[in-house]
UniProtKB/TrEMBL annotation, chains A, B:
Keyword Metal-binding: yes
One Pfam family linked to the record: ACT
PROSITE patterns to which the protein is assigned, alphabetical: ACT, HOMOSER_DHGENASE
Gene3D superfamilies (alphabetical): 3.30.70.260, Dihydrodipicolinate Reductase, domain 2, NAD(P)-binding Rossmann-like Domain
Domain of life (superkingdom): Bacteria
Signal peptide, first to last residue: none
GO biological process, one term: methionine biosynthetic process
Binding residue positions for NADPH: 108
Full protein name: Homoserine dehydrogenase
InterPro entries, A to Z: ACT-like_dom_sf (IPR045865), ACT_dom (IPR002912), Asp/hSer_DH_NAD-bd (IPR005106), HDH (IPR016204), HDH_cat (IPR001342), HDH_CS (IPR019811), NAD(P)-bd_dom_sf (IPR036291)
């Protein structure tokens, strides 16, 4: 057993700085748990001259611009990849495994795209590969799913796994801000990037859902299997109707598995105010898990940030070092149990919300409801208001449970009704308003 | 590696039946994860003739009234203790360790009282000892704390860890029921026992908080170190005032640690409606963890019930079997890092709520506030109402932060004020009403 395990760090940005800081700060706690020290021996950076404030003494850490100075160092056992990006990160991680180094990463893009390949490379080289920090920052959700639910069948996952969009939607819901105003506030407060595309279009959430679904359901899910709708086109009117019907609108990652087939998507959803996810506000993240035996469970916390993410990275480093001491690195990974089978739209069920503008004349609502009735879709909640335009009625409906296929067919026919001016919106609904 | 690991079950009650059911039902998932089968070979019961409906085929399981038929069976590697009680359970577990069997238990009373002794016996015999199910049923909170926060300093834990009292208080809060009426409803719906004493007096929660605090702070906490106040004496008037001030009253287990000294207690607390714990309703449990690096995190789910608890038990059995396969059983336990040092009342700080009845005359409030002022306690929120009795004013105050010692001194002096008729209530406050 080594006296002091050397870690090689790839990247000293927001998360990397946190890793250096926490490892220095918590030397005593780490030494107590592990029976040995841990130190960051060297760190790969792009620019040697840049000023860095990690809040910790960097004298002990050699900075280098050469990946091989880290990967080729025989003293280094654990490589922490927090440089971000995809191709270069993939290459250095594969190189690290070849050099028999264990790898911990916070890189969700990489794991979502190349998780399978990286796991296989790790196994081949009897190395550990962990990525707790890649989903929901400091929340120990991957451990929770793989260890805590080991004997349960997870039926469903719902996640608020993107802090930026949850912050924006909280402001839109609570303060009635428009999407643009809420985005601007998020940017000013550091919760959204200058280019917010990957967050607000739902791609970041999709990557995390692919990782979660893969672990929860033991089947490979590719990123392109995740259907994504972002939040940019949300109309404040739908937030107000949601509220008055007993719901809150949130960007929700949804995954379910019936034992054979799987469905994974990210979309704005009307979620019942009674549902635990409805209370997850601002930049916070949460993952709701429904297990056949356990029933409802939820994991809540900070989904991003230097310290929460670094803390998740180091919890993986601790696991790796414990495995090293016990001589059991590698071999954690279990091949997925199920072949990937995606649900078709006929096999996807839900309750749905839609809002239409129709001519304001007698019998219109009855015409609409009989159209749905013919497709066996019945209505659960209905609101009808005269719209600002005097000749137009605004009709809001929440349906009972039906297939997505059926619902899409109904909307198609609705569009062709002479009395219907426009289908303004269409969203999925989760939970009962008065549960 | 064995083809099929034999489990010995001690007790086939609510949780034991769930264990048998889940192990049978999830054979395939368990075999896939473990690379071997798992079966319940024999089970200790009190009465062989009792009808049991485990929802599973019991033919494969031998029932016995003799503990030694389980503990003495060389084929059995893992013993699951779900018989409950303390002395007998302690004895059989110690015997199991002597026979080199790993032990998984759901017995919070036992772990809270004898956890240290049992851990030592496990270590001596190189056996595993796990008890995830002992706190918060199916929620993987013990793993979350020990593994997920491995590199963080946990500063504070707050837990709704007793479903019965949370159900009762939810009904009192939401429907204005009296304590007695809410208890009766809880009993009718199966959320409270016929003799609810250990729940409503806070003892059950205290046991769980002792276990949580021990793991989170790496120091021994004895059950008698946990200060306990139950919910029986809660006046509906205080729930109403809490509500109008922006708080919800809940029975909260509280533990904090400043790096040297520790405080653990269970008491009714006014918790801000903005706090994630305020939304935990009915029989649900949740543990809120504040880590220096991670910040806020919360684990939510079903805190009891046959299936959730059995699922947590089996997740421990899975961990044990994985350890067996890798040859690393025993050695998980780490001696507490810190000597136990409890905070005195001078070192315990908080904001406090109190309600007094005073004579309804000019200058009374000013007299009260100057009394507090002399002790450096200032007021944050104040409500004053004429009481039903015309000559009496009801005064409700939430203070700014002060020491418990100081606060108790102030209440003592208040009691002696001529104008004060009665101190009706006194509670701790967590969080800001308008955070």
């Amino acid at each position: 057993m080594k006296d002091n395990v050397a870690v090689g760090l790839l990247g000293v940005g927001v998360v990397g700085s946190g890793v250096i800081n926490l490892i220095e700060k918590h030397q005593e706690k780490l030494a107590h748990q592990l029976g040995c020290g841990v130190h960051v021996k060297s760190a790969l950076v792009r620019n040697l001259d840049k000023q860095r404030d990690t809040g910790a003494d960097m004298n002990g850490t050699m900075l280098t611009t050469d990946p091989d100075a880290v990967l080729g160092d025989p003293e280094i056992d654990v490589v922490v990849e927090v440089m971000g990006g995809i191709d270069e990160a993939r290459e250095v991680i594969l190189k690290a495994f070849k050099a028999k180094k264990h790898v911990v990463t916070a890189n969700k893009d990489l794991v979502a795209l190349h998780g399978g390949e990286l796991h296989e490379a790790a196994e081949r080289n009897k190395c550990d590969f962990y990525y707790e920090a890649s989903v929901a920052g400091g929340i120990p959700i991957l451990r929770g799913i793989t260890d805590g639910f080991a004997s349960d069948h997870i039926e469903q996952l719902m996640g608020i796994v993107n802090g930026t969009t949850n912050y924006i939607m909280t402001k839109m819901n609570q303060e009635g801000l428009s999407y643009e105003a809420a985005l601007q506030e998020a940017q000013e407060r550091g919760f959204a990037e200058a280019d917010p595309a990957s967050d607000v279009e739902g791609l970041d959430a999709a990557r995390k859902m692919a990782i979660l679904a893969r672990l929860a359901f033991s089947t490979y899910i590719d990123l392109e299997d995740v259907e994504v709708t972002g939040i940019k086109d949300i109309d404040i009117a739908d937030l107000q109707y949601s509220d008055s019907l007993g719901f809150t609108m949130k960007l929700i990652g949804f995954a379910n598995f019936d034992g054979t087939q799987v469905e994974v998507n990210v979309q704005p959803v009307l979620i019942s105010k009674q549902h635990p996810l409805a209370d997850v506000k601002n930049e916070y993240n949460a993952v709701y898990v429904y297990g056949e035996a356990i029933g409802e469970a939820m994991f809540y916390g900070a989904g991003a940030g230097s310290m929460p993410t670094a803390s998740a990275v180091i919890s993986d480093v601790v696991t790796v070092i414990k495995n090293m001491h016990r001589g059991v690195t590698g071999g954690q990974f279990v091949e997925p149990r199920f072949k990937k089978r995606l649900k078709s739209d006929e096999q996807r069920f839900g309750e749905y919300y839609f809002r239409v503008h129709a001519t304001d004349e007698a019998g219109v609502f009855s015409r609409i409801s009989s159209l749905f009735n013919e497709l066996d879709i019945s209505f659960k909640q209905i609101l009808q208001n005269p719209s600002e335009d005097d000749d137009v009625a605004e009709i809001v409906v929440i349906t009972h449970r039906t297939s997505l296929h059926n619902m899409q067919k109904a909307l198609e026919e609705l569009k062709n009704l002479e009395q219907v001016k426009a289908i303004k919106s269409f969203y999925k609904v989760e939970g009962d308003a008065d549960a």
